[in-house]
Amino acid sequence: MTEDQLDRPLRRAEKVAEVVARDIVRRVGDQGLAPGTQLPGEAEMLAEYGVGRASLREALRILEVHGLIWIRPGPGGGPVIAGVHTEDFGRMSTLYFQVGRMTFRELIEARLILEPVMARLAAERRDTELLPQLLAAAGIQEPSVVSDDGLYLRTSRDFHRLVAQMAGNEILYLFSHSLEDIFHDRVRSMLFPVDRRTAVVDAHAAIANAIARGQAAHAERLMRDHMIEYAEYVRRGHPALWDEVVDWR
User: Fold this and answer.
1) Hey, how many other C-beta atoms are within 10 angstroms of the C-beta on 222?
2) Terminal CA-to-CA distance of the chain, rounded, Å?
3) Rounded to two decimals, what is the model's pTM?
4) Are 35 and 83 in contact (CB under 8 A)?
5) Residue 6 near residue 55, CB atoms below 8 Å
6) Cβ atoms within 10 A of the Cβ of 197, count?
7) Could you say which DSSP state residue 4 is in?
8) Is 8 helix (H, G, I), strand (E, B) or coil?
9) Which helix (H) or strand (E) element contains residue 151?
């Protein structure tokens, strides 16, 4: 296939490598190729696309930088599909956040909007297969979650991620997880003190129970109150963070 025979015509300012990268992504989606699938080797791709080695390698590098593939080294190696990961999406987003001078206050506000909406959707859609996991992540049956920093952080993140998963919207899931990844990467040590964690566990339990009962408006309200409380804790305890620009990770 020659450069002018690619499925999508070249735009005036578009590089050959970008067209090839886009075609590879489209093929992955159209064929439903799973993460871990190895793509054709360099020789086969060069023959198929009819482009120079430099253009093909640049195309693969574009996809690698965005976390969509990784390169398996050695004989028989080559590009391997990595799949969609919130960490990679978040890393890419932080470049735009930093250039746009966007702050952690704006990031927290975005989470304050997304999290309650997802709690409502989770209650409306009530994924019965995930409900036991949600109730477990709420920490209802694990007393040590309050005193163990690592367990507290892990169960809290699992809880919010399960709510997002139960919302049944992959775009909301990707956005919310990436914002959470960015936030926790910066504020990993800003946990609620031990004497306030019981209230957090109780809030998670109330939200989980509202979702389990299909009480959509109640779940949304509880999640909003919960997120506002944490935002206020961060604002009061770490005021400098509020107007700090998000760095490119």
Assistant:
1) 22
2) 38
3) 0.85
4) yes
5) no
6) 19
7) G
8) coil
9) helix 149-166
- Count CB-CB contacts under 10 A for residue 141: 9
CA dist., res. 34 & res. 193, Å (int) = 42
Please name the residues in contact with 66: beta carbons below 8 A apart, sequence gap of 6 or more.
88, 92
Q: pLDDT, tens digit, for every residue of 168-184?
A: 999 999 999 999 999 98
pLDDT score at 1: 47
State how far the Cα of 94 lies from the Cα of 208, in Å rounded to an integer: 31
pLDDT tens-digit series, residues 23-40: 999 999 999 999 999 999
Give the DSSP H/E element, type plus range, for residue 221: helix 216-237
Q: Is the pLDDT of residue 5 over 50?
A: no
DSSP 73-142: PSTT-EEEE----HHHHHHHHHHHHHHTT-BHHHHHHHHHHHHHHHHHHHHHH--TTTHHHHHHHTTTT-
| Cβ–Cβ under 8 Å, residues 123 and 214 | yes
The domains of the chain, with CATH numbers, are 3-81 (1.10.10.10), 87-242 (1.20.120.530)
Q: What is the pLDDT, as a whole number, of residue 190?
A: 72
Q: Helix and strand tally (H, E) in the chain?
A: 11, 2
**Pairwise CA distance, residues 205 & 223, whole Å:** 11
Q: Find the farthest-apart pair of alpha carbons in the chain and give their distance in angstroms, rounded.
A: 66
> Using CA atoms, how far apart are residues 216 and 232, in angstroms rounded to an integer?
24
